[in-house]
Amino acid sequence: MIDLKKMSFLIVDDMDNMCRSIRSMLKILDYGSSYRLAGNGKEALQLLRQFSVNLAIIDWNMPVMTGIELLDSIRADKELRDMPVIMITAEANSEIVAEAAESDIDAYLLKPITVKSLGSKIEKVVERANNPPPALSLLKEVRNLMEARKFDEAIPICRKAIEADPTSSRPIRTMGEIFFKNEEIDLAERWFVKAAQMNHLDVFSFHHLGDIYLRRNDLDKAFRFYEKAMKISPRHVDRAINFGKVLLQKGKVDKAGTVFENAVRLSGSPMELREDVGRSCLNACAFHAAINQFEVILKQFPKRFDIMKMMGIAKSSTGNDEEALALFLKVAEKEPDDFDLHLRIAKIYVTMKQTFRAEEILQKLQRMDPEHQEVRRLIAKNL
């Protein structure tokens, strides 16, 4: 049980004066005996892993790590995930409400904060933590069963949660998640559709429906549901990447590029994400978009020869053989046994009518694989 007088708080805001102001309000309310302050999400996580905290008060809009990103990290940590969290925001728009619901936030508080509004919100959150409603307790039980992959046991418990809170889409979408994780996709679809019909801001359900239709290669439906999810909550990196890949497959390269750049900007690992985006663009034959991603990576990591090779493939595919050749030759110095790479170099030499250089490489490749049909065809053509 959390004691209002003795509880410990973590206050997270990039504005130091806001952290101190909230701490002062808590002292006026006579709530808590311990207060820790953090200037960003990363600092907050370090403190949470070092000290016991009963309730975190987090600003939604922060650099380094946003409030939602911090909340996602908290909910993903088995030691921290049941800690109550209050999110502070300047406005209650649909995006914030949707993200709050998706991330299992306990409450959000609008600025400007007053002693009265802060005290009222904390009282409600603590009361709910001390006396959780039946549906919430049941859903936590479902979560634990899902993590243990006991899906058959989770289903009846989830049905009880639906009966306990029939007006909420959360237990219904949780049922969809059970079936989704158990690879029962048709059943998962039915429950996610039902949740989305109940709550037009249930971005979790829209996102999973996009995943389901993408898996079925039904690009039109995948596009429709990802687009709905993105309109409600555009700050989810994985959602943006999946949506961008659907756009690529539908040939909407420019729009995909915009979505990808937004995802990269939000990502905590932008170079890793750029690589994923670049590969996806290359596979979708969106060569100029792929080149844009690979160029950024190579500026920071000029010795990434795997990226250099992919950029060479993209350059060659756009008809820029000279630049592609220069890239391939650099990679060849490090990868002398890369058959595919040397075949690409030989093909460019054939195109450039540099017969002697092409022949030298092709003869080497034929010794490596005497039955390779394309090598044999090129030798015959070149000679």
TrEMBL record:
PROSITE patterns: RESPONSE_REGULATORY, TPR, TPR_REGION
Residue spans of the TPR repeats: 203-236
Gene3D superfamilies in the record: 3.40.50.2300, Tetratricopeptide repeat domain
InterPro entries reported for this sequence: Bact_response_regulator (IPR050595), CheY-like_superfamily (IPR011006), Sig_transdc_resp-reg_receiver (IPR001789), TPR-like_helical_dom_sf (IPR011990), TPR_2 (IPR013105), TPR_rpt (IPR019734)
4-aspartylphosphate, modified sites: 59
Coiled coil (UniProt feature): none
SUPFAM superfamilies (UniProt xref): CheY-like, HCP-like
Protein keywords: Phosphoprotein, Repeat, TPR repeat
Chain ranges of the Response regulatory domain: 8-126
UniProt name for this protein: Tetratricopeptide repeat protein
Source organism (scientific name): Desulfobotulus pelophilus
Source organism phylogeny: Bacteria, Pseudomonadati, Thermodesulfobacteriota, Desulfobacteria, Desulfobacterales
